[in-house]
Each structure stands twice: as structure tokens, then as C-alpha cells.
Amino acid sequence: MPHLRRSEQGRILFVSAHAHQGAKIDFDDPLNVGTWSVKFHAREAFAHSKLCVLLATRWLARELKGTSVTVNCCTPGLVRGTRHFRNSPLMSSICVKAVTYPWMWLFMKNAFEGAQCAIRLATDPQLKEVTGEYFNDCEIVESSEMGQDKELAKKLYMQTIKTLESVTKLTVDREAYGMDLELQMEMESELRLEAPAEAETETNQAAEEKGKENGEEQRQSLK
């Protein structure tokens, strides 16, 4: 993030999906820890994750407002070759596949078409000042109502930080008025690449010992 802020124009791009519109998030449990510990459903989890991505886009764009960094989100749409429905019980039927796949293939995008929205967000000079938006087919579109919930975005963000703090060196600075949050990743000396240096020292010591042994053998042979 510091490098992006120092750059002339940094861009952060998240990839969501149309599926986010069918997702629901419990405000008191935005990460669905309690729900999924009881019952996990892959399709619901996918939709939930894409809604979380969209909410993260909204919140991070708010946090970086006034900087040179923009944050946007897009959906590539349904793209051929991704095997998106490979685990769908409905698609396990050969008859269903025979009827639906030709139509799906006709209306789905190829890889080149699916990449266009992300490419535009990453490169188009006209989008230099655009941030916090959701794109489909290279244009700004409305997301679900829940995907625009600022309070839910904040709750999700803070819950994510709390979870990360429990397993990483991540710390959070809360500004005086308790709203703006900034992530700071402290570089600990213990995280430096000390192992390779130790390995190199051991290698040098081994080579030195070997050299001494060879020298001793040569002296013995000359006697």
C-alpha cells in the first residue's frame, strides 16, 4: 500500500460476480463463522464471498479517498472454460447438460471477452478519478442493495481486521474520531531472511573443514 500511495496513479481492482446479488450477510456475523460452522453450502459461500469483495471495495475506496489510489470492482460475467457449474447437482444429469450446455456456450463469454472489463479498469485514463464503483461489461452498474450498505462494509472490514490480528503481525490504528482505519504492517526483524544467511555460513564452514582435511591428506602423502 505505501508504494501505491507514492505512485502517480495506483489502481486496486477486485473481481466480484453477479452471484453477489443473491447473498445475505448477518450484520452480527459478517464472516458467517457461526453459520458455516453448523451448515456449509458451496453456492451460498461463493455468493457471500463475492458480496464481501464488493463491500471491501466500497470501504477501501472510502479509506483511500483523497489519495492517488483508486479502488474498483468488476464482474467478468460467465466465461467459458471455467467449469463454474462443475459441482452443481443439477448439472450432474447428462440430459440437463445436453439441453443447457449449447445455450450456455452460446451466451457465455470467451476468455478474451471476460478480461475486457478488468483490463479497462486497470488501464483506461478516463477512469483515473473513478473509485468505489462496480463494473459490468466495462460500464458502471448498480450492485445489490446490500452491496451498497456502508455500515455493513465497515462491520465486515473491522471483523476481518480482528480475525487477521489473531493470526498475523497486523495492527490497526484507529483515528481520533474512531472511523478511519489504516492498516500498518510492521516489518519484524524475525521475518527477515535469516535462514539463507545461516545456511550460507554453514556451507562456508563445511568447505573450510573440507579444505583442512584435503591439506592434511596432501601433507601425509608427501612424507
From TrEMBL:
Keyword Transcription regulation in record: no
Biased composition (Basic and acidic residues): 207-223
Low complexity bias spans: 196-206
Stretches the record annotates as Disordered: 188-223
Keyword ATP-binding carried by entry: no
Source domain of life: Eukaryota
Signal peptide: none
Keywords attached to this entry: Oxidoreductase
Xref: Gene3D superfamilies: NAD(P)-binding Rossmann-like Domain
MF-aspect GO terms: oxidoreductase activity
SUPFAM superfamilies registered for this protein in UniProt: NAD(P)-binding Rossmann-fold domains (SSF51735)
Protein name stated in the entry: Uncharacterized protein
Source organism per UniProt: Drosophila gunungcola
